[in-house]
Structures are given as C-alpha cells and as structure tokens.
Design brief:
The chain is α+β, with helices and mostly antiparallel strands. The chain has one domain: B-lactam Antibiotic, Isopenicillin N Synthase, Chain (Jelly Rolls, Sandwich). It has a seven-stranded antiparallel sheet with strand order 1-9-6-11-4-2-3.
Length: 249
C-alpha cells in the first residue's frame, strides 16, 4: 500500500508540474503579445539612452570580475539554473552541461548572504534603482543554451562580460545570438538587449564563461504598460520569496 501511495503521489506531482509549465508558457505568450502591440524597439538597445548606469558597471568590471572569480572558487555549490527555476529545465538541463547562476538579487528581492560576498557589486546595484536583478552566470565548457524567449518585455537584460574564453584567433569563444545576429563580446564589454527576442548561447571552449546578468526596469513605455509591469514585477517578486531558499548559497 505504501509503495502504491508513493507512486500515486509522484504521478500527481508530475501532472501538477506539467500543468504549471503549460500555464507558464501560455502566460508568457500572452504577456509578449500585450507588449508587442505597443513596443517596437529593436532587440539590442542603446545603453546610454535606456540605462545610463551601464557606464558605472562597465567602468568597474575588473572589480566585479575579481568578486565573481572568488565566488567561482566554490562553483560546485552554486545551483544550476533549472534548480532555481524548474520552468527552465529545457534550456538549462538540455545537454548535461552546467549553467550555474549565483543570484544576488532577483526582481528586487535581495539575498544578503550572496550580496555580502560581493560588496563592490552590491554597492553598484544599490546605486541603480532600475536594476531589479543581478546574477553571475557561469556557463560550462561546451554548454549550449538552445533558442528561447523571455516572457516579459517590462525589463531589459544587461550583459557584462567578466571572463570570456578566447579561440585560437583571439576571438571570444562564447557566442550570444539575439534575433538571428551573433554577438561576440570581449572582457569588459556591455550589451543591453530585450530577451523576449529569440536568443541562444554557445560556449565553444574548454573554459567557463562568466558574465554579470542584470534585469533592468524598462522606463520608456506608455503609462498603462508601466503600471502593468509594476504589477507583474510584484507578482514575480512574491513567487521568488516563496522559493528563495533555493537561491541563497
């Protein structure tokens, strides 16, 4: 009887997980349609116009990198992305290679123990109220993140390269492709982009690629979309608080 009960519980749990995944996908598609009708920005945006604080992060990239490398010394303890967000298993657990995320802040929810290990970055985030999330992204050698789209145009994605492997020609060996265009950034370079456009990442090297990822509040929107974005951010923030124990390292 106990074995049967356990089997039934696992079946129900799996069914509930699939239902939640379908709900997430449906909600993401609906959310994109709402914003797509009103926003017509390109996939990659001018950081000086949309996020002037980018210069502050970029000018301090070496200090941020030093903190990221200290965190990387305990890489095995940092959760894989799908261990933080099970909805991302298809892009995080797709090939058996690690994509680990050291999350210091998520949609305004701070993780003090993680932030405490990176005081310089924590100070920069505190000075930039539009930065909702800040994470170090560690992409394992050979890791491929297949094409996917983010759910929500109310934020923009900041991408600051901290440690980029190079190929035999001295070119960046990890590629971020957004809306069909490949971007190869060197250490210290910053890109601001909209992750609701289809994108993929490939680390074609035998070294870990490290970048700082920022989620940045999109300000240049009509009032009704700003209000909708504030509501979505509050809802996501609540969900993060409920699963926060998975994030703190």
């Amino acid at each position: 009887m106990y074995i049967e009960d356990c089997s039934a519980t696992k079946t129900l749990t799996a069914a509930a997980t699939r239902a939640m995944d379908r709900l997430y996908d449906s909600g993401a598609r609906l959310m994109r349609r709402v914003y797509d009708r009103r926003l017509h920005d390109t996939a990659v945006l001018d950081a000086a116009r949309h996020f002037p604080d980018a210069e502050r992060f970029q000018s301090n990239w070496r200090t941020i990198r030093a903190e990221a490398l200290e965190v990387a010394a305990g890489l095995a303890r940092i959760p894989r992305f799908h261990e933080v967000m099970r909805e991302q298993a298809d892009i995080s657990a797709n090939d058996g290679r690690d994509w680990r995320m050291y999350i210091m802040q998520a949609y305004g929810v701070r993780f003090p123990s993680n932030l405490a290990r990176c005081p310089a970055l924590a100070a920069l985030v505190a000075q930039s109220p539009d930065v909702l999330s800040a994470s170090f992204s560690f992409l394992a050698p050979g890791k491929y993140i297949p094409p996917h789209r983010g759910p929500f145009r109310g934020i923009l994605r900041g991408y600051l390269v901290l440690s980029m492997p190079l190929d035999a020609e001295g070119m960046p060996a990890a590629t971020l492709s957004v809306d069909g265009r490949a971007h190869r950034l060197h250490d210290g370079e910053f890109m601001l982009w909209d992750d609701t456009f289809e994108h993929e990442v490939r680390n074609a090297s035998d070294e870990v690629r490290i970048v700082l990822l920022l989620d940045i509040r999109r300000r240049r929107m009509p009032l009704d979309l700003r209000l909708l974005s504030n509501a979505v951010i509050a809802l996501v923030r609540l969900g993060i608080r409920l699963r926060g124990s998975r994030i703190a390292v």
